[in-house]
Structures are given as structure tokens and as C-alpha cells.
Amino acid sequence: MSERKLIVLGTASQVPARERNQNGYFLRFDNEGFLFDPGEGTQRQMILAGVAVSGITKIFISHFHGDHCLGLAGIIQRISLDRVPQTVEVYYPASGQRYYENLRDACSYHNEAHLKACPIREEGVIFDNDRITITSGRLDHEIETFGFRIREKDSYTLDPEMLCKEGIFGAMVGELKKSGRVRVKSQTVTVEDVGNVLPGQVFAYIMDTRMCGAVKTLASGADMLLIEATFLDDLKSKAQEFGHLTAAQAGMIARDSQVSKLVLTHYSQRYTSSDEFVQEASYYHPEVIAARDGDHIHMPRRKRDLHLA
User: Fold this and answer.
1) Is residue 259 part of a domain?
2) Does one domain contain both 68 and 180?
3) Per residue in 237-284, pLDDT tens?
4) Whole-structure pTM value
5) Do 179 and 249 sit in the same domain of this protein?
6) Annotated catalytic residue: which of 30, 37, 67, 140?
7) What is the CATH number of the domain that holds 13?
8) Is 159 a catalytic residue?
9) Burial letters 41-76, b for 16+ CB under 10 A, else e
10) Average of per-residue pLDDT across 6-28
11) 303 in a domain, yes or no?
């Protein structure tokens, strides 16, 4: 059974707090498991959240500040200990190669992990297959930082009435699903002729940045946007100084980018409650969630079929 949800492992910026671990986010997307920015303590947070390392297929490091990467060493060693069979791809800024290697080899252990290092040198497509495309965008922070956009490719559901009208039955239906076209008598019928488009979903991940062009490019039309909101807007100048966003700015980004569900995180330790973050962002966007450690936040339902005829 497919499942699409964000599991929040940590929401604190810079240092952990009593009720907030350092960053860590796990996106379960059908048969894929995407781990983002594992900060210190992520391995334990995964246990508490019921997330097994065997479910990780890709790891994304936005940048090499400690609260976004210090947990990587433990995660890699747990992947090794559990003898996770699949190759886990690790995406990170190429400028931080030595940090990646230091974390991977932080101490002595019997290395059985199957890792594929995927350093990012420029923004653009970093992964593509028949189901999803993943792109990176260069953000504006104190060190090289990338945001990520995961886009599912559009698919089609077949219309029974159209199939019947075109004389497509039995094994021909299977061939149509597999190849996207089938020969019926002297004509070729494509899936577009007899199908309804099911738009692919988009998940966007934006951490540690000032306002910049890549922010809106990554967020455009996202079904779910997970974005930092380190400060409230009365500290907008401090956010700008240290390369961060406010809750109000996150709300504006979601509004201007036509995001469906906005999820805020990465709160400064000066705030004990996230209620004001929701209030501030909600002035600009109607569906705002302030992430809390341990939350399971489901992706919105896919949009209904739109017949192309």
C-alpha cells in the first residue's frame, strides 16, 4: 500500500531544546524514503517515530552546518550495522566534500553500508527516472546551501468507457499501461486518447536561506512545502543578517508560489511556542502547519483526474 507523508524528526535550529531535536525530516513517498538534514540525535528520533533505516533510499544534506548534518555519521553506521541491502544515495554540496568524508568516516566501524556519494556542483536536475524528477536550487545562506524539489511525473488512469469505445480489452489494456500505446486494427491508440491525467505531486524542501529567486522556483505549485521559519517578523533584520527566513516570509512564499500545504520548521531556541509562527504565516496563506517533533503530516490528496479530450 502506498503512503505519502512527512515524518518530523527534529525542528530546532542550531541547538536542540527540551522538546525539539536538531533538524531531521523523513519523507515516505510510496516505495521511496527520503531523509533530509539529519542533525544530532536523528537516529534516536527515527526509533521514536517508528522509522527504520532500512526504509532510507536517499539522503539529502542542504549544507554542512552542524544542525543539518551531525547525525549523518550515526545514520551511516546504523545502515551498516543493519546491513541495509539497497544502495543509499547521499546528495550534498560538492564544496563540503571533506565534511561528508569526515562524517562518513567519523570513527572505527565495520563498514557494510552501500552508499553512493552524489555531490552537487550546480543547481538543476540531480535525479531522474520514470517516476520522479529531483532538482536542486542554490539558496542564499552563509555557506553553500541547496534546496530540493521532488516532482512526481504525471500519470494516467484509463477510462473504461473510452477503452470500450476504442475496442481495447484484456491483454491489450496491459500493453497500453506498459508501453503507453496499443495497436487496434489499423490504428494506434495512446494512453492520452483513453486516459485521464493524474498530475504528479510536488514536495519542496527549503532550509536556511534569505529570500532569493531559487526559493520560489523550488516552491512553485508544491503540494507540500517544508520551509524554515527561524524567526518571527519583528526580527526580520536578524533573519537577513544570518541568512534565514521569518514565518511571514514563508507565508508570502507559499502564497506567491501557489503552495497547497505549508509546513514551518527550524525555530530559533528563543521561542518556546510555535503558535505565533502559525498566526504570522496564516496572514498570507490559508493552510499552515507548525511542525513539531514526532508529527506525521500527510501529503494532500492527489488532484482528481482531468480528462484531456
Assistant:
1) yes
2) no
3) 999 999 999 999 999 999 999 999 999 999 999 999 999 999 999 999
4) 0.90
5) no
6) 67
7) 3.60.15.10
8) no
9) bbbebbeebebebebbbbbbbbbbbebbbbbbbbbb
10) 95
11) no
